[in-house]
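The freezer alarm interrupted the setup, so I double-checked each line after restarting. Inputs confirmed:
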Amino acid sequence: MITSFTPTIRERVQRIETMPAIPAVFLPLMKLLGNSAQEVALDEVVRLVSYDNTIAAQCLRVAGSPLFGLAQAPKSIKVAVLTLGLRRVETILLTCSLGQAFAAKKWVLDPAVFWRHSLGCAMVCRRFSEKLATADPEEAYLAGLLHDLGFMVNCLAFPEEFTAAMERACQEGIPLDEAERATMGFTHGETGEALAEKWKLADDVIEVIAHHHGIEQSQKAKPLVALVHLSDLLCRMRGLGYGYYERHKVDLIADPAWAILLQAHRDLEGVDLVRFTFELDEAVEEIHALVSTVFGTASALT
Amino acid sequence: MTLLTATVVPSVPTKGVPAVDPVYRQIRDLVYKVSGMYKAEEKLYLLADGCERRMKQLGTKTPREYWDQLTAQPSRDGELRQLLNEITIGETCLFRSQPQLDALRKVILPEIVAEKTKQITRRLRIWSAGCSTGEESYTLAMNMLEESESLLKGWTVEIVATDLNDRSIETAKAGIYGDYALRSTTDYFKRKYFSAVDEKKLQVRPEVKKLITFSRLNLQDDSKMLFMKGMDLVFCCNVLIYFDGASKTKVINHFFSNLNFGGYFFLGTSESLMKLNEQFHLVHFPGTIAYWKPSLSSGKL
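Predicted 3D structure, all chains:
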């Protein structure tokens, strides 16, 4: 059923003139993310931050926020980058550049909720990967950040249908992808895939965007898709969901994704999932603070 | 060209969390390893406070010195117990964990009711194991009463509350609580299920008490544990942390047998079973975790 819908979705996504182009700093940034922190040149990061005035201003604002406890706001981008650390700067840059690509007025989802979930998932993906010797934390981080790209497309291309799906999900307390399938006949996986292809993102990231709710359809990147799927579920159970109560229980170890991940990373067996869950709670507050500093208050955007 | 290395990037303090001596992180890990209780970073100050109160009593000067007392024989076991007492003190109150109650009413009860209705059973049995002075038992009873006109209409609910300590049980039976124990109880519940004893204290009404049987039980008494049958839900908060590995495994295995298929086992909010029982499935609900004994129909046994 889904396959027969796909061309229509792709056509609709491609047809929309307002569909954003890939943000200019996005690809160079992703390239930077591929390198380890030791190899990244500070000057290069400063150049990317300074490329766009709005992003530069946001970076300075975040660096000067109480979150980082500085006595005074940093005066230059270079100081801001040094204060925040490379990972935070990457996070802010990716978030801001993506945020800018989508017109704020068209959001059906509260953008603060969306970013908390996306950044939360990215953070969980990175931490999860760090526990597995052969996983790539930076690749996982990026995949986590982008996995729900389709929601942004939905807001632009299918606002009415997506509003109905969102309302149904909230009312019934069911997962959003289930509500999308029931009301729209397709999910953010398919719409996200269409935009990711248009943007020519890496194949593995496209698979994550397309199949994180249908892992069996993934072809080449099954372990990464599994990791993002599990991290996504964990986020939604630990205060970084879509802003409503999901009435279901999540059994991560019995999830088919767990077995797939275990096959690729045998050391998953030694991961203490409860302790990992408790550790994640430590980062939730920081993510909330980061999102409110980057975007101001949620209401300013809606 | 400047390289952005780990040495140039300063670590960023987490908002609102004062810096703590790194020894407390070592103590946190030790407490977790021995008891299964994990104090997350933002709650580390609670652990540090507890340690400092103990240090004051013992006349210990530095956290490092206290670490030695926690790890060296012969003081080790006794001191760890004292510390656990300190860090769980004040956690007892009614409506202690709203995420647990939400999971119970929004997800678990509908599931159990659907499952049991198939078997034409209309009886729900809940066990508050290590009920202390009754706060948890009454919270559960009030929440079940809230469902009695909807989901649980026509059902019999029975709450078995047990504790090792006779004095605690007497206090629990009286059901009289002050502001501190009632700090998380909403006015709605206070009005509906309590009556005033005096200006400062409220007493649980008889219709709530009717649901609960309080009795003394030692969780390590195997013969008695075998009789606790047919439970749909078991709550055991901040009790198992005091047990050594072998006793803990034994008690958890009892709980598993005491539960019906499809039943749930809840611990305190920062507690974990670690891997002491492989038959229970660790399950997540929004904001909370529980252990599930899979139902026969789930095919996950």
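Quick read of the result. Residues 98-298 of chain B form a domain with the Rossmann fold fold (CATH 3.40.50.150).
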